[in-house]
Batch of 2 targets.
Target 1
Amino acid sequence: MFTQETIAVLHECSERSVAGNITFPEVVGKLMAVGIEQYHADLYRREITYYAANGDSHMESESGLDSKKFNANAVAAALNPNGVKEALRQIQHKEIDYQKFLRGILSAGVANYWVYLAGKRAIYVARNGDEYVEWFPGAR
């Protein structure tokens, strides 16, 4: 069971990501500090589930995302790895915020993604299970 303090950090990371006032490296640092090993973003449902190494989990709704823009209908039918790479490049260079990043990966066919903090990678998954793996900058 997560402590209230840990849940507050998870909530803060989700809220600030949607608001566009926290970077991915900052999120990673905060999550690792409270023992998060991985998380899963469900773009259909606008939810993020955080997992600790002991199996504890906690789901946060990204209710700040407009359900008219962020839903299953927004996910392209096929994975476009180049579209995912471009959205990643733009957010890494601070050219776009989190919501624009999400719109970019949705239009590139991403339905959900997993972030593995210890493994230093994210796996972007399409409707049919096709995937694109992105290593954290400097991980390889």
Target 2
Amino acid sequence: MELRCAAIVVGADGMCSAVRQQLFPEAQLRYSGQSSCRAIVESPLPSTLERRGWEVWGNGCRFGVSSVGHGEVYSYATFDAPQSGQDAPSERVAWLRQMVADFPAPLPELVAATPEERILRTDMYDLRPLPAWHRGRVALLGDAAHATTPNLGQGGAQAIEDAYVSAENLATQATVEAAFTAYERIRRGKADHVVSRSRQLGKVVHIGNPVIRRLRNTLLRNIPASLNQRQLDTLYTLNY
């Protein structure tokens, strides 16, 4: 058998990356303090929700829905919970029904229509910043380099940006090492920003104290539209 050495290795193997473990064995995931339940179910949504995502915030929890086409709806709940908590599917359904009992329609009806075997529970983690994203001819990409909580919906998007920038630099830089150095220099600031802001947002959404929740809601309602737009531009503008 002939053994060959790879010209490059790109570790795009997710939050629990084996490639990252080889490069940076000291790297640690951080538990967010929150767990989640997700499901896809066939259920009609009101016409006002057919083309938009909708999220309702509660006491230490939230519930969101989005149409994914063909009469199917993706729903998710996030809630404060100890790490690695265990529950039976029937207990999960009972908890979700209790959680959304006072939420506006159609959320209680949607949970009631969701079979317990469709509900997937996963804890929410992100990755502590790494000292680097590459060593020699080996580089990390996406969640392997900068895993984020899903609060901003940016995990997959940031991986795509990584892939574009790394490919562009591999095609134009003189050496692999130079390409990976440029890739990290270009992408690191934005990716770290997403990880940090997503973690912060999770904490803001899950505020339990009712007085602080009312203050949060008042502040959010009065944020200038220009500031909201700048925050969105930071996420969605491609400047490389």
